[in-house]
Amino acid sequence: MNINPLYALPNLFTAGSIFLGVMSIVFSSNSDFQLACYFILVSMVLDGLDGRVARITHTTSKFGVEFDSLADVIAFGVAPSMLLYFYMGQSYISNGEGYKIVVSALFVIFGAIRLARFNIGSSENEPNSFVGLPIPSAAVLIVLWILMDIKYDIFSVEYKYILLIVAFISGILMVSNIRYPSFKKVKWNLKTFVILLIFLAVVFANYNRAFIETLTLLMSLYVIYGIFRWLLLILRMQLKRIFSSFNKKR
Q1: Which pairing describes strands 129-131 and 179-181: parallel, antiparallel, or unpaired?
Q2: I need a surface site. Which of 15, 185, 190, 199 has the fewest CB within 10 A?
Q3: Predicted pLDDT of residue 210
Q4: Alpha carbon distance 12, 5 (integer Å)
């Protein structure tokens, strides 16, 4: 039986994502938090490339899907949770140890549930939108805010618990029914191309001055967008129900 050697190519990207996730854990345990954060960010790039490489080379497979999910648990579940735990340990009050352990563990558990649900729901078709916050987005949100805190010391010692709240909310969003846009099936037309150019111009214009700040803003807006759209949907449904009930009474 002939095996196409191209099948190894996307899996190499996935393996690289696992490797960087493990490296992030190692550097987090050694208190090199900035480098640990960057390992996770680069891992996200590799995670985005493996699927695209598989589609371009026509080497998509069930093995690749499962391997990618296992990689995501490590790179975007365990790695950011350990980063958060060790980072909080530097300045958090001693009686908060239990909270650190619980939140870190729940983040991994919620992430695993999110991936399992995604694998069951998506089958062989790429979704137009994600049900629940994707685990890479949740992980990168935590990483970016830690980088912001390293750079600007946003959260003083007594307010470091805010990072735990962010991680916990991110975990809840992963297992929620809130929908987030997927960019895997973007239709490349003139409008999309212009938006992409504007986005790239903003990112590169701020590369030297505020690269991390720009990424943090964009990722935070992405997370908030899903919540805001969900609240609008609930409000619209409630208003529709009220008006429907009012019309029946008339």
Answers
A1: antiparallel
A2: 190
A3: 77
A4: 12
